[in-house]
Write a structure and sequence with these properties.
single chain, 130 residues, mainly alpha
Length: 130
């Protein structure tokens, strides 16, 4: 076997390019992407709130306080940072899950169309050249 080949699960040698294509077309786990984006969003909101509260001042974070219009119970305070952490996690989870869901379904439809075109092409080749 040459260095540009690898073996698949069933022992068939795959070219490196084929291996990369298979990896790029693999399904994205919606729960994993949701948890990761939820964690990032939640921590960012929590940290932004804590930094603004720690910084202090007469008016604390008027722009960040606008999140209370969307996140019921959120405020630019230390307890509000925990509420923001929770809401950020939920929002990030939903966004990550939707991204994975839409990507997987669009890719599945695209591959289905490619298979259909290949099948129709082979049928028309068979009809044209008996």
């Amino acid at each position: 076997m040459n260095p540009t080949e690898s073996t698949s699960k069933d022992g068939v040698a795959l070219d490196t390019i084929d291996h990369l294509i298979v990896q790029s077309l693999a399904r994205v786990d919606g729960i994993a992407l949701g948890v990761s984006l939820g964690t990032v969003f939640g921590v960012l909101i929590c940290l932004a709130t804590v930094v603004l509260v720690f910084k202090g001042g007469d008016v604390i974070g008027p722009n960040l306080a606008l999140l209370s219009q969307y996140f019921i119970g959120y405020d630019v305070t230390y307890p509000g940072s925990l509420v923001g952490l929770l809401y950020g996690f939920v929002f990030g989870f939903v966004v990550g899950w939707l991204i994975a869901f839409l990507r997987n379904n669009v890719l599945s439809a695209y591959l289905h169309v490619l298979k259909l075109k290949r099948t129709l092409s082979s049928v028309s080749d068979y009809i044209d050249h008996p």
